[in-house]
Write a structure and sequence with these properties.
- By secondary structure, this protein is of the alpha+beta class.
- The protein folds into 2 domains: about 100 residues, Beta-grasp domain (Ubiquitin-like (UB roll)); about 140 residues, Orthogonal Bundle (Fumarate Reductase Iron-sulfur Protein, Chain B, domain 2).
- The protein contains 10 helices and 7 strands.
- The strands form 2 sheets. Strands 2-1-5-3-4 form a 5-stranded mixed β-sheet.
- A hairpin with a 2-residue loop joins β6 and β7.
- The mean pLDDT is about 95.
- The structure holds iron/sulfur cluster and FE2/S2 (inorganic) cluster.
- FE2/S2 (inorganic) cluster (FES) binds next to loops.
């Protein structure tokens, strides 16, 4: 038993703006922050807005800032925070719809679409007839597997100071996915994707601060992925310069 904890929630209502409201919740050994918030909604304040679905670290929808760190509320136990005061805020960098619900359409979904996150094949007939198998060795799979674990929670974007400074930055989630599809042995769209990320709003905006990788709940390492894209682009530039000679 952890005991009673104070939960300070940063609330937002259009027309009213931001304000904090405090609640007291009884927490056990395995009580998560999401459990505490659901308890508040069910027993104390049904006006509190929280987004969640799977409650098991899969859907990414319960992303929020807990005691100053972007985390999944369903994977964060109260006990792990080692304090009896929990402050919960909506994700940084995103506009807020209401209370803990951030609007993720632009910074997350639109940027993800920008990098063409799917297999691109030159032979479209082959792709759409689906008569062929795109075989892959275990080593080829291992090359991109870690990047494919992204659940699109947006925590990396919430932690990124460059997103805060440059709202047009493609961002760590989408850039990691640009690498994920480009290094997939079945893909033939690498050149197209590299052109998209080779800009001051793309990989060159990243200063390798690494906050994105630190908060990622799935170990995706977007910061490392961005550096790999920079290396690929640098090698391509060197190759084209050598050809000129
Ligand atoms: S890279 Fe990690 S933190 Fe970023 S959206 Fe994917 S799972 Fe979430
Ligand atoms: S509710 Fe799905 S990841 Fe937390």
């Amino acid at each position: 038993m952890v005991g009673e904890v104070k939960v300070r929630v940063k609330r937002f209502e259009s027309g009213k703006g931001f304000y904090y409201r405090e609640y007291r919740v009884k927490a056990g050994k395995y009580t998560t922050v999401l459990d505490a918030l659901i308890n508040i909604i069910e027993e104390q304040d049904s006006t509190l807005a929280v987004r969640y679905s799977c409650r098991m670290g899969i859907c990414g929808s319960c992303a929020m800032v807990i005691n100053g760190v972007p985390r999944l509320a369903c994977e964060t136990t109260i006990r792990s925070l080692k304090t009896d005061t929990i402050t919960v805020e909506p994700m940084y960098n995103f506009p807020v719809v209401r209370d803990l619900v951030a609007r993720v359409n632009e910074l997350l979904f639109n940027n993800h679409r920008r990098v063409k996150p799917y297999l691109i094949r030159r032979d479209l007939g082959e792709q759409f007839k689906a008569e062929a198998e795109y075989k892959q060795t275990p080593l080829e799979l291992a090359e991109y597997l870690a990047y494919s674990y992204c659940i699109m929670c947006g925590l990396c974007i919430s932690a990124c100071p460059i997103v805060y400074e440059k709202p047009n930055f493609i961002g760590p989630q989408a850039l990691a996915q640009a690498l994920r599809w480009t290094i997939d042995s079945r893909d033939e769209g690498g050149d197209e994707r590299l052109k998209i990320v080779d800009s001051l709003d793309g990989v060159w905006a990243c200063e390798y601060i690494g906050a994105c990788s630190k908060v990622c709940p799935k170990g995706v390492d977007p910061a490392g992925a961005i550096q790999r894209l920079k290396i690929m682009l640098t090698i391509n530039t060197a190759k084209s310069l050598l050809k000129l000679k």
